[in-house]
Amino acid sequence: MTLIDGKAISAKVKEEVKIAAAGLSAKGVTPGLAVILVGEDKASATYVASKEKACVACGINSYPYHLSAQTAETALLELIDELNADENVDGILVQLPLPKHIDTNKILEKIDPSKDVDGFHAVNVGRLVSGLEAFVPCTPLGIMRLLAEYGIATNGANAVVIGRSNIVGKPMANLLLNANSTVTITHSRTKNLAEICSQADILVAAIGKPNFVTPDMVKDGAVVIDVGINRLENGKLTGDVDFDAVAPKCSFITPVPGGVGPMTIAMLLQNTITSARNRLKRSK
Ligand code: NAP
């Protein structure tokens, strides 16, 4: 069994980003990422702080907007309009979840698709599904990078994704399909889940339930990717896979923490670089 080292690969991606950002800056296009946080949710504030820190460490300008929980939807829409028009901003990220009085879909659809580095805008979703160049959500994009780095073949592989969220499950399935896997998407209404999962060459778990994937759900020699981040009562972080029991059956497995998690921010930076490169191309 090989442990997939997301920390090491994310460090490699960040190094690539650093070099690319320096190259772009030398040509007068310093990549810039605007990060909007609405409200005081602690977990969101922590995520946003690490995104801002990672930007600065890689030579990307960070434009933080920390707004109060009472911010009106119209004010947020106006801010996005301003950022859409701002030449120095290559990426716009709105940290989710938003307060209940704000319509998340309305906000995400306001972001210019060419600055949608989270890949949540319907235009980018549609482009991904169509197999066209698109901004792709960072977590599944990071997983594809992990598979590539470890030489894991997707071509013809039987891939099963547990979870159908817009952020992880659906884009993951589309990326695997585009990479010629035979893909099954499963969810809370799926019948015979264990049997379906036990056929998978590549099993991706994005459920949000600690230790959900047990050895009976895993084929001998399978590649198991654990997207889950669950905080147990004792404060320990654990994935969706019962790691100790499942790992001996796997050819490759991601740990939690240190597997998929570190890739998400790295791919956000990479998407920002892609957007800045597009800006440079447009300016020529
Ligand atoms: P989500 O929106 O809550 O989606 C969870 C999915 O799991 C849903 O599609 C749900 O099915 C399915 N599910 C729930 N119970 C199930 C069951 N008993 N059997 C089969 N499927 C079941 O969650 P998410 O945003 O995709 O995130 C999933 C996990 O990944 C969470 O732990 C989250 O913290 C983590 N995550 C990690 C990263 C990272 O950077 N590593 C990024 C994003 C998310 P239904 O659709 O039928 O309800």
The CATH architecture of the largest domain: 3-Layer(aba) Sandwich
Helix content: 40-55%
Termini distance? Answer: 49 Å
The CATH superfamily of the largest domain turns out to be NAD(P)-binding Rossmann-like Domain
Largest sheet: 6 strands, parallel
Which structural category fits the helices and strands?
A: alpha/beta
Number of helices: 10
| Average pLDDT number | 98
Instruction: Write down the Rg.
Output: 19 Å
- Low-pLDDT segments, ≥5 res: none
Outline the fold blueprint:
Layout: E1 2-3, H1 6-26, E2 32-38, H2 42-58, E3 61-67, H3 73-85, E4 91-94, H4 104-110, H5 122-129, H6 138-149, E5 158-162, H7 169-178, E6 182-186, H8 193-197, E7 202-205, E8 223-226, E9 230-231, E10 237-238, H9 243-246, E11 252-253, H10 261-283
The protein binds NADP nicotinamide-adenine-dinucleotide phosphate.
Can you tell me about this structure?
- The chain has two domains: 28-112, 3-Layer(aba) Sandwich (Rossmann fold); 138-261, NAD(P)-binding Rossmann-like Domain (Rossmann fold, 3-Layer(aba) Sandwich), CATH 3.40.50.720.
- It is globular, with a radius of gyration of 19 Å.
- The protein is an alpha/beta fold.
- The chain has helices spanning 6-26, 42-58, 73-85, 104-110, 122-129, 138-149, 169-178, 193-197, 243-246, 261-283; strands at residues 2-3, 32-38, 61-67, 91-94, 158-162, 182-186, 202-205, 223-226, 230-231, 237-238, 252-253.
- Strand 5 (158-162), helix 7 and strand 6 form a beta-alpha-beta unit.
- It has a six-stranded parallel sheet. Strands 3-2-4 form a three-stranded parallel sheet, sandwiched between helices. Strands 9-10 form a two-stranded antiparallel sheet.
- The chain binds NADP nicotinamide-adenine-dinucleotide phosphate.
